[in-house]
Amino acid sequence: xxxxxxxxxxxxxxxxxxxxxxxxxxxxxxxxxxxxxxxxxxxxxxxxxxxxxxxxxxxxxxxxxxxxxxxxxxxxxxx
Length: 79
What we know:
This protein is mainly β. It has strands spanning about 10-15, 20-25, 30-40, 45-50, 60-65, 70-75.
C-alpha cells in the first residue's frame, strides 16, 4: 500500500464530511492515466483499488481532490 506495487495497489483515504471526490492517476509526464473516482462520497474511510497491469514500470502520481483541497502523492509500479 501503495509503494511499490505490482500490479495492484489500494489507495486509502478518509473524509471528514461527505462531498465530491476526484481521484486521478498520472504518469510522471503529467498525462492522465486513469480516473478512478469522480463522484459524491460519504464521510469516513474509503479504499479504492488501482490496477496497473497494463502500464509500464515507473513512477506515477495520484491526485485526490475533495472540495478545495488537493493531495498529490507518488507511487511506484515495479514489474
